[in-house]
């Protein structure tokens, strides 16, 4: 493992860094309740459910009656949060957590979240999912007024914006409202001050954010609804784009105060949900802005079957991402749905590379055909997207070697035409 | 981690040890080829494919022109075999590997396989899947003649039986043939001497064992057919119960000599394949003794639908074990197949235990309902077996909380009535 | 291992934190040379030599033609800098390093040095040994002007002071000169900008700092002279209290420009070297401000022998801290010097605690008497200080059990009467 | 890390293996007491004291009322025995332990001791220090009678010899007495059966072995006397060459029965203590066969001063091995003893290799001169031996660079003329 913090010192600061190096695809989680308990475990369970949103690093900050204690490290939730590290975190009424997606080269310790800073009015812990489009401008302005940066992430910029406003504001919520008005781009935020838990969703609603309530009166905020149930919380609703929720330990029942309608932005109906949430990022059992992710994918499969039917014997999805659409395709077309490919669930991040004289390849090691399903059949193969054509080509050859007579590849997502600046990492290779 | 080797010293030796402590559920793999190459990587890939048969420990022994080199440790294949540990293994024409299943308390280093011993005629490496029923008798007899045991596994007993016969035999194959005639119970063996690779399947064929051939002329032996393709080998056939295959580096094309028909046992058609291989152990993409595991499970689902139909709206399988049968049930009943439960693939062996004040549970953290599929529906829920009633009950309550109107639980395997002494671990709790 | 970052949020910020929690006892190192090379290894060797000044954490920042790359972690130099982590650091002409001393509870990752920050004019890496007495005042003032803090260390305060001045200065050296005029207390600093390496010693010279030159023209700055030789540098001189040295890659021979005499402080002869450097912190083979540490300790032993002679047969030092003084005592008194206690060099940071029914203790496990030296003898026992009376008492009983007839304990350092605020950690237990 | 178990399969077994690959330099320890307690911690402390005898691997076997539990691994005592691994070992009245020295290439897990085997009459755990000269003959004979070997160590041969005799003997002590009569070479053994602890020293007394008694009535056996005190045991005496001590839990006070005088060998006065124990292996605070190791080295220094005097100003020892002799040289010659070289105690097994453009070397990183002691002086430099001339040459050049005017190298051990077959590893490089 290597934990290199690389920075590029150029005249005028960091603006020459290509955008894709500072993007963030992540999951955020927060909980606040009426009693002191092992909230770190609750956050841990929530982060398990959000792990698909980021596997590089994770962290939890617990608020122990105003004292913040954190554990943050590179690795999966189950690796970072052992009984030993959990034992090092105090009990409390409030905590937040974060999982972070890792991009090539940027696996820096200093970018691990939640970020935790000390400022003139106390402490602030912040977990962020999204990508600002004006981060470098804000960074420049902050540096001109004396700010120094320890990380390359937008998150530190947001911390500065909020804590600077806090100097001039009566409350943390007033500071956040002011600060986020300067932010452009995608941001779902979960924050913690000494006595309050705050959640903010950007005015265009790029990234999901929802909240729910447990039977004991605790409130939970999470990137996806699938993370509510694991801590026993019933889904209440998504945050409206441009909304801020403020939960306080001083409110007897922890019930949130909502700030929307002209607080962050003008009331509007424009929403820009990221299509990749439905296609790829989110878990199928999540419901985002009232729409089931699984249902969306099934429907995409149904439309695909209508628009691009195939004379075939069986419908097979590429696991795991193509399975939902395959079910839709099968249902619409009337063809039988089958398990034609089995994914090896033990091939993880550590991987034995094939030898130079290799007679095998990575795809074959990860995906295995079910011969009895494929042999002599005309197969409709469904995937959600074509990331690299080579993989799709290899899967097709695997089906062919397993005896498939015809293979009809169908992709459930539309073609990707333009780059995105709001937090989707578009690799160049 | 704790690596305790516990043994119980009682009058008369080890015979008072309960059977279930010395059982073995495992996967074996071997490869032999015409040229010297990084065979350790091939075995590693094969073990990836067999990982579902054993997650406690694994090992590889490479035969470097008569010199044996091993790496064996506790952990998953991807954890034990890193680039660093693979670099410590030599190239060679032959190698064998093993994955081992861990039972409570018995995670002993000294039981890690393949076993590698030195005897009067050279070295022997042996990988074993199965469970002998006369192991303690054999052990007693061996101890009376001066044998000492480093482990509690049947494998060491088999090593002794073979090496003792080797003293009196002209060849390793003659020694193996004699030795296995004394073994009672289940055993699929892959062995290696200085110049030969041997594979043996017990006369009743309890455990699977098959072999195939790569384009470069290498031969591969493996517990399941799914492990052949990952190294580019085409399936040839299963070993016949009571058969031994002998591959030699001295044969120009490595082609095996087969010993069956009265070599190990009288020619017979009695076969006792372990039903659990089809129900639970084997991977759905494997074909054992000519029968597709996936197909078997689908058929069980079909029969289930005929015998126990249900007036319902949707068929849902418990992932991963119930999915194949659910497809069969859906196909037979005409009800739509759906993904109603999503399994968290990141919750692995390290697990954050819920706190004492827990408002959640392990099942909920691992399995999440897809509301849009379940709400308001009459659901047929398919699983392969009921291991603990509590889990099934909890899954039903999760479906109910997700809005299922009716839930019809259907189990695709027959009831378990008698204990098994051939290598299936029957927990007592 | 637990890596908890704890902060206390109180009205008015951090000023209620007791001083001893933010102290720093450390070692700093820097190198700059005419050619690009594996400077990280040089710094690693330098940190080995300074390891006695701090065992909690360490770090290296390499300047790769303006790009900074760091590796910093908890642990000893030999644990943190493996071939693997060194391979992750680039070559360069300049690098700095730091070892940090750990105090109870404060083993925070965010306090690991060198600190590396981005500011309006580029990057700054900074390694600090010392303790400011006005850190909290400076911190308050910085927070009032919008600064946020990620750590609890003085180092971040110094970074802010310098980068704030940098906004208004033409050069990094001008900024440093202005900034350090605001600092009160002890500080030896080694810093790096894109093109310069800077070293500063506070006006009272509390902490040591010296420099030397290698044959290839490289310059080395280090806390102690013992760290120069390990990288092949010849000692030139200590920095004068209140001096700043500036080395630049743009100077052909890297030779430093010195700023002293009214640059940082008025020219003065007041020096306040920390007595603990000579008594305890520094290595005996170091020479600080022209005085050999070993020689100082030997002389203390000589004086002790004159002032407190003892009618005895042999002089024995408590290893390792009392050995130098014991040699002095022996030489002055004419009594033979002997090795009467052997220290177990394998008992390190991980330690098997005695059981509850203990018939042994920590002192006995670490120190063992040499019976043949002690039995029947009148022993003068020399130690440098009495940290806890219990240890001294236990050592005396060990000597007695080994047969010493009389034991005359002599302590070579004067009594400790007043607390220190400049970086010496005075435990309260 | 790499844990390779390499074996060479040759016609006729292992006899072509060069002796130096199967040698053993080690430390052994055993304890037996009247009450059940955390004996694993006692053994751990004993192994700390014996760590200098072997740093490659270590292990402890606890006898929990007849059940044996072991923890054995590669690494130092403090690394292998953490609170976690100790917690995995039961309490008991008896335990034994071992530290093992590692030679190039042979760091095999299967050679880690104590060895623990099951045989017809129960369990046997055995820790061995020494080297048999007839091991391969014995091994051949055992293999011919059906024995298989898991390791390449002599220890397994001894286990076999004892357990084979046990089949024909009424007691473990009778079996051991018979078995050891066949052993030729060096062996100090500590063994454990269900109810007894046994200690044996070979008839020529090559390797040390002594025992002592704690105040609570426990008895301790150890390679060196320095390991007795750390568990609170008072030294009783060395085992006489050719003696076996048998301690039993069935004896009320655990007091041993001694078997000597014609039991193992004919009564004789021939002793062959290994000179290297006094010169190099043993700790200076140990007393072996009535002779203090420190005293021996001091005396060697005195003789050296008489035979090879030098006109000099100061005597300096190479730490740590030359210090004792330097004290003797100084005392005899009347020259002052001084600390002229400081050893870096933090440079351990992990080491940052110098870069290719190296301006430094390993010796310089490990040893640092004390200039004030050396400059302008005529120095007598004392070391115990010359292992590699290059190191001595480099030390001399370091002293010269530090200003020494003359350097007189004196070596306290006699020249090494013939190879040794009893357990001293003679490198070929």
List keywords for this structure.
homotetramer, 429 residues, alpha+beta, Glutamine Phosphoribosylpyrophosphate, subunit 1, domain 1, Rossmann fold, seven-stranded antiparallel beta sheet, six-stranded antiparallel beta sheet, 22 strands, disordered N terminus
Q: Most extensive chain contact?
A: A-B, 69 and 69 residues
**Strand segment tally of chain A:** 22
In one word, what is the shape of chain A? elongated
* Largest beta sheet: strand ordering of chain A: 4-3-5-2-11-10-12
Strand content of chain A: 25-35%
Amino- and carboxy-terminal Cα gap of chain A? 23 Å
Give a verbal description of the structure.
Four copies of one chain form a homotetramer. Chain A has 13 helices and 22 strands. Helices cover 26% and strands 28% of the residues of chain A. The N terminus of chain A is likely disordered. In chain A, α4 packs across α5, α5 crosses α6 and α9 packs across α10. With 429 residues, chain A is α+β, with helices and mostly antiparallel strands. The two termini of chain A are 23 Å apart. Chain A is elongated. Chain A has a seven-stranded antiparallel β-sheet with strand order 4-3-5-2-11-10-12. Chain A has a six-stranded antiparallel β-sheet with strand order 6-7-8-9-13-14, with helices on one face. Chain A has two domains: 243 residues, Aminohydrolase, N-terminal nucleophile (Ntn) domain (Glutamine Phosphoribosylpyrophosphate, subunit 1, domain 1, 4-Layer Sandwich); 117 residues, 3-Layer(aba) Sandwich (Rossmann fold), CATH 3.40.50. In chain A, a hairpin with an 8-residue loop joins β13 and β14. Chains in contact: A-B, A-C, B-D, C-D. Chains A and B meet through α1, α2, α10, β18 and α12 of A and α1, α2, α10, β18 and α12 of B. β4 of chain B pairs antiparallel with β1 of chain D.
């Amino acid at each position: 493992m290597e934990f290199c913090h690389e920075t590029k010192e150029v005249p005028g600061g960091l603006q020459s860094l290509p955008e894709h190096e500072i993007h963030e695809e992540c999951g955020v989680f927060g909980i606040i309740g009426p009693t002191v308990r092992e909230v770190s475990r609750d956050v841990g369970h929530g982060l398990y459910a959000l792990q698909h949103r980021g596997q590089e690093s994770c962290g939890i900050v617990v608020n122990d009656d105003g004292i913040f204690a954190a554990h943050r490290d590179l690795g999966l939730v189950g690796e970072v949060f052992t009984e030993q590290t959990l034992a090092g975190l105090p009990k409390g009424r409030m905590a937040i957590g974060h999982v972070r997606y890792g991009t090539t080269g940027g696996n820096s310790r200093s970018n691990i979240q939640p970020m935790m800073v000390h400022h003139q009015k106390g402490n602030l812990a912040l977990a962020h999912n999204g990508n600002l489009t004006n981060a470098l401008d804000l960074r420049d302005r902050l540096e001109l007024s004396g700010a120094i940066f320890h990380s390359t992430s937008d998150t530190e910029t947001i911390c500065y914006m909020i804590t600077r406003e806090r100097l001039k504001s009566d409350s943390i919520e007033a500071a956040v409202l002011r600060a986020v008005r300067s932010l452009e781009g995608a941001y779902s935020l979960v924050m913690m001050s000494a006595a309050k838990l705050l959640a903010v969703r950007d005015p265009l609603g790029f990234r999901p954010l929802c909240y729910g309530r447990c039977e004991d009166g605790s409130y939970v905020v999470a990137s996806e609804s699938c993370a509510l149930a694991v801590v026993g919380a019933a889904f209440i609703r998504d945050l409206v784009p441009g909304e801020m929720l403020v939960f306080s330990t001083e409110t007897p029942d922890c019930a949130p105060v909502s700030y929307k309608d002209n607080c962050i932005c003008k009331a509007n109906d424009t929403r820009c949900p990221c299509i990749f949430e439905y296609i790829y990022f989110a878990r199928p059992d999540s419901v985002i802005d009232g729409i089931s992710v699984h249902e969306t994918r099934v429907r995409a499969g149904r439309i695909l079957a209508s628009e691009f039917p195939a004379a075939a014997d069986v419908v097979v999805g590429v696991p795991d991402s193509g399975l939902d659409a395959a079910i839709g395709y099968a249902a619409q077309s009337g063809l039988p749905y089958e398990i034609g490919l089995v994914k090896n669930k033990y091939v993880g991040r550590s991987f034995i590379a094939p030898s130079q004289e290799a007679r095998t390849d990575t795809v074959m090691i990860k995906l295995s055909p079910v011969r009895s399903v494929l042999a002599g059949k005309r197969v409709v193969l469904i995937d959600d997207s074509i990331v690299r054509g080579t993989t799709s080509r290899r899967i097709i050859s695997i089906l062919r070697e397993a005896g498939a007579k015809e293979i009809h590849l169908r992709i459930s997502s539309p073609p990707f035409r333009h780059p995105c600046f709001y937090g989707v990492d578009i690799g160049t290779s």
